[in-house]
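User: Predict the complex.
Assistant: Input components as received:
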Amino acid sequence: MATLAFQQSEEKVLKPTEKLMYERPHSLDETHTHYCPGCTHGIAHRLVAEVLDELGVQDKTILVAPVGCSVLAYNYFDVDGAEAAHGRAPAMATGLKRVNPDSVVFTYQGDGDLASIGIAEVIHAAVRGEKITVIFINNAIYGMTGGQMAPTTIEGQVTTSSPNGRNVATTGYPMHIAELLSGLPGTAYSVRRSLHDTRHIIQAKKAIKTAFEAQIKGLGFSIVELLSSCPTNWGMTPIDALAWVRDSMVPQYPLGDYKVADELQKKRGQR
Amino acid sequence: MAKELLKGNVAIAEAAIRAGCQAYFGYPITPQTELLEHMSKRMPELGRTFLQAESEVAAVNMVYGAASAGVRVMTSSSSPGISLMQEGLSYIAGSEVPAVFVDVMRGGPGLGNIQPSQSDYNQVTKTAGHGDYRPIVLAPSTIQEAIDLMVLSFDLAEKYRTIVFMVLDGAIGQMMEPAELPPMRELPTERPSWALTGKGNRDKNIVTSIRLGAQPLADFNDILQEKLAVIEKNELRYDELYTDDAELVIVAYGTAARVAHTAVKHLREENIPVGLFRPITLWPFPYQQLGELADRVSTFLSVEMNAGQMIHDVRESVGRQAEIEFLGRPGGIIPLPEEIEEKVRDMWRQKNLAAQIN
């Protein structure tokens, strides 16, 4: 079997004049993912893994994967991992964190999983101020089942279950999760970021780091909503899909900080 | 320890604590709420985890999470709540993590009522969720037995990495009886090797019930079936009373067995040779033992607090040659000893009449 470039993992010794600029995060496994070409799950995975490395918490982190495209996420992260029932990741994470209070527990959930079937579990995890972090992938569609309407599907968006475009009069309005959860006292950190270009990806990583810091400091529940692309189910090229995130999703889902606990704001000021 | 006058639900909760239960997640539902209430007081007192979940759906998934972390964890509920837990039960079975469930059954279907019932026999013994598996199901008929089986539940769950159900009805949950609690056990200081704790210096652990390929899932099912076969062989529990010379045997468990016991004693005073066969494990069901009894007894009566659920397992045990009658009270009614006695007298008369004709 051919060896791929990334599988040549022997340690490279740097010369005194060389500086390491880029390497695979230790919190990611050396493996292929099953994600579609152009999907932003890969970027989101990498950002989370870089943050776990930088915070030095890989060895005490537990991932709870959802039902959805990222159902196999624990095969890609090199951390302990569990696979929850559809929408129940925050409840499973609650059980894990309550009996492992010194660990770092995060869920990684899509919009069908979190905003539809699992809305009660995520709200009550936030209500209780569970010391867990939620990485919420909003791509305005059900990906794994082939592109049906999600609670986050925007008005007029054509999906396989809204073939004439989402009609808000009969199917309701897009759900704004970062805003919704920001209103709960148990929420320490609730923000929305986007993965449509480099600048926004860097901002997303900062937010993911702050979210994990909120958990490690014991401040309460933290969530980062990431606007993401789904070229396959949107029927677009990867580049067009990123443009659609920028032009159609960002206006519907404004980027910003909806809840930042005081303790986190002070730290940001010190930087 | 000396006997105390204990209420069923409270005795069960305290027995679970003494057995080493490290985490409890639950949701209030009659007639088991005293169990949750006792846990809410005692668990934090002991520095253990208690959490009232937002629903039974969340509770079972919290149990799943804590079980994945390798701690002794349980929940308790009643029939409609157990229905809601089916999803999580199936995931727990598919992940092979140990967890203990107490079901204080009430009348169904639907919201039904809160009266004592055995309405969940099918629900808990015939898989309890989608997929091919069976939880171990223990059915006490006294508070002392509930205490003892509660302790056993945690040991069996851990030993086989399986779901253990203890099922009782509202009568046992609500009544008071003298019983003796077990001594407090030391909590385990280490977690099992498969547990999710953060990987530390070892390779990562994964707890999942997904096996995408057909063959891997088939292979896993084979392993699960092998394990269930071992449980069937090792963990059968049942009780027999006056069956040595019996010509007619009542089959009953839980509260129905208590009532049947009283009836059997009265009928024996009338020289009617009746016995009582009481399954303690509803799964594994004592098919073989009841079948062996059928080699010398031809007449059986299944007494249940439902419309006839266990009777199908009784039929499977005793075969087509035996005569089986049913006395059931669905809807949350406990049959009276007199009803059972009348039924047995009638069966005994018919049996003798038939013998005279032949």
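The mean pLDDT of chain B is 97.
Let me know if you want any component modeled separately.
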